[in-house]
Amino acid sequence: MTTDVKKLTNTKDVIAYLAEKFPECFSLEGEAKPLKIGIFEELAERLKDDETVSKTRIRTALRHYTNSWRYLRAVKVGAVRVDLDGAEAGIIEGDHQQHAEQALAESKAAAAERAATKRKAQQAAAKPASDNNAKPKANVSAARKARAKSPAKRHSTGTAKATKPSVNLTAAQHDQLQIGQQVQVKAGKVPVAGQVTEIDRDDIHVQLQNGLTVKVKVSAVFVTK
């Protein structure tokens, strides 16, 4: 009876698997051990019948492991290289350390650049948000000023027009009002034309010509003679 073997595809999982299989060679924390030159071929041979990992995944995991900062720091002149079983398999030489130091510096520079780019992107994303928060306030303020001015003009214009028929307006009586009746509502200084939409005891609902519906007392409603 055969059992299905789950292949590892995540690089970190593959490295953890290698550390479990070859603890004298690979490690997940602490000081790393420099690896034998040609360690991939040795791994491929030892794991050729292992269905858990493929050669491609082993190669990717090995590249990730040896490019890590922890590993690059361990590559120092005179340090011992090890094989899969932890046996001595060479010594780190000057050019090996130089190459590791260069790779470490480039990796740190790339990480710093990515972090700077991320910060700039976050700042750029945050700036429009603050601008957007400020603009509506300015727009609202401007709109209020515009509304404060425009009604005055409309009222001044409307006053001239309304003064003529105002002589013919008379206070409405509750029993005179009907739904649908055209009336004048004194919501401000100048009566505004509208239509009665609802009568609720002393409250009269009137839809003004501008589309707004107001609720006023009977005393604020006028009819034309």
UniProtKB/TrEMBL annotation:
Compositional bias ranges of the Basic residues kind: 144-156
GO terms for biological process, alphabetical: post-transcriptional regulation of gene expression
Composition-biased stretches (Low complexity): 100-114
Principal subcellular localisation of the protein: cytoplasm
Subcellular location: Cytoplasm
Keywords: Chaperone, Cytoplasm, RNA-binding
GO molecular function terms noted in the UniProt entry: RNA strand annealing activity; RNA strand-exchange activity
Cellular component terms (Gene Ontology): cytosol
Disordered as annotated region, ranges: 97-164
All residue ranges annotated as the ProQ/FinO domain in the record: 6-120
Pfam families membership: ProQ, ProQ_C
Function statement: RNA chaperone with significant RNA binding, RNA strand exchange and RNA duplexing activities.
Family of the protein in this entry: Belongs to the ProQ family.
PANTHER family assigned to the protein according to its UniProt record, in alphabetical order: RNA CHAPERONE PROQ (PTHR38106:SF1)
Protein name: RNA chaperone ProQ
Lineage, highest ranks first: Bacteria, Pseudomonadati, Pseudomonadota, Gammaproteobacteria, Alteromonadales
